[in-house]
UniProtKB/TrEMBL annotation:
Domain of life according to the entry: Bacteria
Organism: Microbacterium halimionae
Entry's Gene Ontology molecular function annotations: structural constituent of ribosome
Keywords of the record: Ribonucleoprotein, Ribosomal protein
Composition bias type Basic residues, residue spans: 1-15
GO biological process: one example: translation
Annotated spans, Disordered: 1-64
Family statement drawn from the similarity comment of this UniProt entry: Belongs to the bacterial ribosomal protein bL35 family.
One GO CC term on file: cytosolic large ribosomal subunit
Protein name as annotated: Large ribosomal subunit protein bL35
Keyword Ribosomal protein: yes
Pfam families from the UniProt entry: Ribosomal_L35p
Amino acid sequence: MPKQKTHSGAKKRFKITGSGKLKKQQAGMRHNLEGKSSRRTRRLNKDQVLSKADTKMAKKLLGR
């Protein structure tokens, strides 16, 4: 049987931590940054751990 291919969009968006959790970039940092407060942009710039419900689907796409 052939190998399962990794979803190329998912592998660019998620990183797996040592403990097996998935990290993602917070949305909202692409444009209109002048209108957002510095406090908000700092918060959005941090990586975020994926929720448990989304982790199951994302790991499937990554072939894990």
